[in-house]
């Protein structure tokens, strides 16, 4: 983030009606400008402005945090290549990376290998795991022992959640400093396939969690109780679209009494940035909601165009 002194300096240099040579800006101000761009924009456009901008763009300090999105499937391979280039430019100084929509086993292995030989990586998130498998994630995290934050979201598209429990055990055992886990799948309105595998893996291996986002998981009250038993430091718990959990009675009191922020299974999902469509039961038969479940009208359904519009607005804001 730009400091107030740097911002005021930039405002002083660029007065109304005054033309300046952008190449003459001090490197620290040029860095602040370029940091507002994405990795692709820096490499493909900004560095071609002038020699001084190219020099700043190659500075390893510019690449301590990398966030890239690929909304076009035809561009995924290109963005993976650009992500590798950005990782190389950090020269081991990368501490946070977010390869959204295009992360693969090969890319994650490359990132993990680079940082097992250099400075530690603390934050990793990936969304829409079209090319990343549970095995690929497990093999990579053993090389990232100082990881503090991990996000794997929209993973239901490739059946990723089916083996996620075993993978998260490896994550917890390999990353003892983990404080934030965002494990998000697609919710089912009345899932007959209940599973506490992921919840039990978290309870068994991640006692230091402070923030847990569990969007669309199939856990039950038993799984939630196991997490509460084993994770005494939880401050934020997101259970939205976890429709197998009846958050009431003693369980509700237990959550609300010790956790600062609790997002309930039926809470609004307007601030969730990914596909939050609620599906019918997994056996293909529609639910009649005779058991008192929330009516379908209370769920938010988003078309693909709405999701992409949101993603584009989020990316360019």
Keywords:
about 325 residues, alpha/beta, 12 helices, elongated, disordered C terminus
Quickly describe the structure.
The protein is 37% helix and 11% strand. It has helices at 4-13, 27-34, 39-44, 51-57, 76-89, 105-116, 134-141, 164-174, 197-205, 221-230, 249-258, 304-316, and strands spanning 65-69, 96-100, 123-127, 149-153, 180-184, 211-213, 236-238, 261-263.
The radius of gyration is: 22 Å
Q: In total, how many beta strands?
A: 8
For the largest beta sheet, what order do the strands appear in spatially?
1-2-3-4-5-6-7-8
Tell me, briefly, the overall form: elongated
**Largest sheet report:** 8 strands, parallel
- Mean pLDDT metric: 77
Low-confidence segments, given as residue ranges, are: 156-160, 282-317
- Regarding quaternary structure, how should these chains be classified? single chain
Our estimate of the beta-strand percent is 5-15%
Percentage of helical residues?
25-40%
Count of separate DSSP helical elements: 12
């Amino acid at each position: 983030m730009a400091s107030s002194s740097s911002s005021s300096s930039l405002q002083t240099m660029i007065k109304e009606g005054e033309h300046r040579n952008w190449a003459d800006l001090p490197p620290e101000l040029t860095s602040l400008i370029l940091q507002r761009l994405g990795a692709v924009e820096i490499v493909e456009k900004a560095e071609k402005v002038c020699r001084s901008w190219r020099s700043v763009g190659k500075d390893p300090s510019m690449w301590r945090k990398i966030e890239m999105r690929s909304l076009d499937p035809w561009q995924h391979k290109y963005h993976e290549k650009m992500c590798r280039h950005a990782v190389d430019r950090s020269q081991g100084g990368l501490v946070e990376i977010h390869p959204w929509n295009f992360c693969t086993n090969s890319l994650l292995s490359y990132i993990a290998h680079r940082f097992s030989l250099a400075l530690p990586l603390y934050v990793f998130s990936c969304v829409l795991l079209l090319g990343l498998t549970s095995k690929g994630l497990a093999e990579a995290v053993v090389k990232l022992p100082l990881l503090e934050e991990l996000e794997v979201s929209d993973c239901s598209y490739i059946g990723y959640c089916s083996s996620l429990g075993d993978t998260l055990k490896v994550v917890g055992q390999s990353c003892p400093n983990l404080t934030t886990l965002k494990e998000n799948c697609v919710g089912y309105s009345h899932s007959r396939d209940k599973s506490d595998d992921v919840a039990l893996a978290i309870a068994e291996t991640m006692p230091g969690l402070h923030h847990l986002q569990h969007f669309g998981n199939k856990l039950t009250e038993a799984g939630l109780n196991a997490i509460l038993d084993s994770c005494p430091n939880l401050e934020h718990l997101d259970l939205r679209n976890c429709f197998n959990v009846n958050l009431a009675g003693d369980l509700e009191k237990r959550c609300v009494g010790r956790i600062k922020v609790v997002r309930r299974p039926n809470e609004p999902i307007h601030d969730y940035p990914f596909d939050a469509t609620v599906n019918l039961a997994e056996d293909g038969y529609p639910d009649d909601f005779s058991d008192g479940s929330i009516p379908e009208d209370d769920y938010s359904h988003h078309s693909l165009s709405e999701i992409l519009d949101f993603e584009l607005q989020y990316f360019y804001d």
